[in-house]
């Protein structure tokens, strides 16, 4: 059995592999075995890997299963103590893996962790997809140390201390393989978006910890498969967020939170239409609400299992305030300003 398997899920990402895979090999090969799982690409990704990166272990999936199920199917073929899920558009740095492994080896109560994410487009700023570790507000809105909604902070060392978080970014996620399997991995029905938050919330409900370890830094392009503003991204985010809440919220909060999300989601839809003139996102939010209603009861058994196996209802990284209120009414746009 390998200690660490870095698994990059690829779909038509030959350009990203050419640019960033050499750095992963250079800075990681001494500590990890590197895999690329190809999600049914139709570009020259597979030929590129075979010709230019023969040392990379190639896993071929027969079609595009999406991020969540693609990883589940790929990781089922990998035997390691740790899985490191790594996006193909990540630029790693010298020694990036060492602090993550040292942290996990020293703390068996920690099931998963992430490095600090900075942006390739602006290397002094955090990157949207994970920054320095993620949280949720009371109504399921995600935010990070270093990013609230679209406001991304400059990294001035303000979040350099390791921190317990609710969720670690799927762009660079180190997780214990045994525990990943125990909780059922990523929810493949999500296809993409919110799946790592759902996974980490389930880990926390079972009493495992999730951390950000900023001694490790990587740089992320972001938005490579579905760029920001794509209606499909909006649809997946809204549908999957509602599904995650339905699965993971405790019984005494479920009705209250879901009523508020009904109101807030439709408010967001009309705001994006009337103020942003964005018909695509308006329709996407309505489609997401309908899709959630149609498939909600497909997750009844999941909800029952998650709630019955939960060891704690009080997760401090799931904050009790409304992020919308803090951001739009109180004008608090940086993580350090939040309650």
Walk me through what this model shows:
- Strand 1 (2-10), helix 1 and strand 2 (33-39) form a beta-alpha-beta unit.
- The protein has helices at 14-28, 45-52, 66-75, 97-106, 177-182, 195-205, 231-248, 251-274, 279-295, 300-309, 323-329, and strands at residues 2-10, 33-39, 57-61, 80-86, 90-91, 110-119, 134-136, 142-144, 147-148, 151-152, 163-165, 172-176, 209-220.
- Helix content is 40%, strand content 21%.
- The termini are far apart.
- It is of the alpha/beta class and 339 residues long.
- The strands form three sheets. Strands 1, 2, 3, 4, 5, 6, 11, 12 and 13 form a nine-stranded mixed sheet that branches. A two-stranded antiparallel ribbon has the order 7-8. A two-stranded antiparallel sheet has the order 9-10.
- It has eleven helices and 13 strands.
- Helix 1 (14-28) packs parallel to helix 2 and helix 7 (231-248) runs parallel beside helix 9 (279-295).
- The model has no long low-confidence stretch (mean pLDDT 96).
């Amino acid at each position: 059995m390998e200690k660490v398997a870095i698994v990059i899920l690829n779909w038509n990402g030959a350009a990203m592999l050419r640019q960033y895979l050499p750095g992963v090999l250079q800075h990681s090969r001494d500590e990890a075995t590197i895999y690329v799982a190809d999600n049914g690409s139709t570009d020259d990704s597979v030929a590129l890997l075979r010709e230019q990166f023969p040392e990379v272990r190639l896993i071929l999936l027969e079609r595009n299963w999406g991020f969540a199920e693609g990883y589940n199917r790929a990781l089922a073929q990998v035997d390691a103590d740790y899985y490191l899920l790594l996006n193909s558009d990540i630029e790693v740095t010298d020694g990036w893996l060492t602090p993550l492994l040292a942290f996990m080896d020293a703390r068996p109560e920690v099931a998963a962790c992430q490095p600090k994410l900075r942006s390739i487009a602006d290397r002094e700023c955090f990157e949207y997809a994970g920054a320095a570790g993620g949280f949720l507000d009371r109504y399921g809105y995600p935010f990070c140390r270093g990013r609230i909604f679209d406001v991304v902070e400059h990294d001035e060392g303000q979040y350099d201390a390791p921190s317990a978080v609710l969720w670690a970014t799927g762009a660079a996620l180190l997780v214990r393989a045994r525990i990943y399997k125990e909780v059922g991995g990523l929810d493949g029905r999500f296809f993409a978006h919110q799946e790592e938050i759902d996974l980490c919330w389930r880990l926390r409900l079972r009493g495992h910890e999730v951390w950000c370890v900023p001694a490790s830094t990587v740089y992320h392009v972001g938005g490579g498969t579905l760029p920001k503003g794509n209606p499909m991204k909006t649809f997946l985010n809204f549908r999957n967020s509602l599904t995650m809440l339905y699965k993971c919220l405790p019984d005494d909060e479920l009705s209250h939170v879901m009523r508020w999300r009904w109101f807030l989601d439709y408010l967001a839809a009309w705001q994006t239409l009337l103020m942003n003139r964005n018909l695509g996102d308006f329709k996407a939010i309505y489609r997401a609400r309908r899709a959630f209603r149609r498939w909600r009861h497909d997750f009844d058994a999941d909800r029952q299992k998650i709630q019955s196996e939960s060891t704690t209802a009080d997760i401090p990284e799931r904050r009790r305030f409304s992020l919308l209120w803090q951001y739009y009414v109180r004008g608090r746009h940086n993580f350090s300003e939040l309650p």
